[in-house]
Amino acid sequence: MKRCYFTLLLLVQFELYMMSAILAKPLGAPGILSRRDLLSGSYYYKTCPAAEEIIFRKMKAWFRKDYTLAASIIRLHFHDCAVRGCDASILLNYQNSERRAYASRTLRGFQVIDDIKAKLERYCPKTVSCADILTAAARDATNLLGGPFWEAPLGRRDGKTSVAKEADLVPQGRENATSLIKFFPGKRIERSGFGCSLRLYWRNLTQSCKKSSNFVNLDATTPKTFDAEYYKNLGKKKGLLSTDQELYSDPRTAPFVSTFANQPPDLFYSQFAVSMVKLANVKVPTPPNESEIRLNCNYVNPAPRKNVNPPRHG
To answer: Which residue numbers mark the site Transition state stabilizer (predicted)?
Structure first.
């Protein structure tokens, strides 16, 4: 069966404009944990020192098999963070979970995370969370595409709740700029970032795919490269989607598109890296009753078995 998926530019250049957003509040603001509160780039140095190396090698192996999986992993990471924070709730696979939501039907890359998790469970069991795996894998996927590398603060725990209707609250891809501006303040994301979220959540692109084609290139110039060329194409009115062109023409959002189109690529790269760190720090779950280290990323851990044997006397 042929699949119709976004090319790297769809998921990385403009779609991930959302991830290059400037979050409206700093890391230490309510609802966003700072590194000193929980997360650290050296979190697994003692408990699982090879964790990030394992994640990178696995991500690289999958990338070599199918380069589009890199963009898919970044998209999967964003879908996870956009609902309940980066808690791996998007990975939970049961009826009425985020993963089963209508908005999630084109998500890919679950097998990549499962493969990485299986390897880590053999190397250091019950240690590395699925949320951290997805966060680090998204960073490595960006780098494999030629994008920036950044220190990914780790130490997240996996959420126990996943609700499909929450995932379905995201924009559908047909909203105008005003609708998007109204939606994203609730996520503490500034206007500079919501543009790409529309791409991340635009779930009807498959309708524009030709039956004989596997891909739709939103950037005909450099479709396999992490760069800002797509923003330049919007300035030439070459955006595939009308909603993209509106982001360029709307006076409230046009300056952000123009900045990335006209400034050196390093600006886009550095802002993307900084914003990815901020994005990954939103609403990190910490209470033991609300989070855990999953043994299998698809399911919450089974409840501990109670001792039903009566105590022995004498």
So the answer is: 75
